[in-house]
Design a protein that fits this description.
By secondary structure, the chain is α+β, with helices and mostly antiparallel strands. It is 25% helix and 28% strand. The N and C termini lie far apart (43 Å). It binds nickel (II) ion.
Length: 222
């Protein structure tokens, strides 16, 4: 069965985003980050990719070795705020994403910052839940897209409403039962998802690089 693709629309209001986040466990704020900042972040993250390509392999650069080519495949730069990229560090500290996260779930603290990178040929991310040690609606991940994310280059996919399932819900069974929704995004879009959501992403057999910066925000309420 083909996974249905969510249709892009203009950016919804905060109330609509909140409602979708509560019901589906994810929502997309279209064009939330301006093109100038996306361009700056693109330059910084390309420099990090350049470091990796030049053979620099710090522990925070997560990669695996491709079985057929022995090539190291980078898929995540962890602790992105500590890699000497000022714009990325600013995004983690206090900027446009904090305002969006607090508008959605109240006072928040940024807890994790990373770049998710899908180099051409990289494998998809197996279906999973990021965390189940928090209640629905109290910890969210915001992903800023620096490149187009489409089905062809392994965009985000999720089972709507699965953030509300019990802690011990079976992830492969939830995936199989579906429905699964593919969520394409354009540069500047911000995908928000509940950390409890059952989600994953496909391989990137295309020649298109896809980068996103992901920040986890945890509620400080109560
Ligand atoms: Ni995840």
């Amino acid at each position: 069965m083909t996974t249905p693709v969510a249709r892009p629309s203009c950016s919804p209001t905060i109330e609509t985003l909140q409602s979708r986040l509560r019901t589906d466990g994810y929502a997309v704020a279209r064009g939330h980050v301006d093109a100038g900042l996306i361009g700056d972040l693109g330059v910084e993250t390309n420099a990090l990719l350049g470091r990796f390509a030049a053979g620099d392999r710090p522990d925070d650069f997560w990669c695996y070795e491709d079985g057929s080519t022995d090539r190291p495949m980078l898929y995540r730069v962890h602790n992105l705020e500590k890699q000497g990229a000022a714009g990325c560090a600013d995004l983690f500290r206090d900027a446009v994403l904090h305002d969006l996260a607090s508008a959605l779930i109240g006072p928040v603290r940024a807890t994790v910052c990373a770049m998710v990178v899908k180099t051409p040929g990289v494998a998809g991310v197996p279906w999973h839940r990021d965390r189940i040690d928090v209640a629905p609606g109290t910890a969210i991940n915001l992903s800023v897209f620096l490149d187009r994310a489409a089905v062809e280059n392994g965009c985000f996919e999720a089972v709507p409403g699965s953030h509300l399932l019990a802690d011990d819900a079976d992830v492969p069974r939830t995936h199989d039962l579906g429905p699964r929704m593919a969520v394409p995004a354009e540069p500047g879009d911000v995908l928000v998802h509940d950390v409890r959501l059952v989600h994953g992403s496909g391989d990137n057999p295309s020649g298109e690089l896809r980068r996103s910066i992901i920040i986890e925000f945890t509620s400080q309420a109560g």
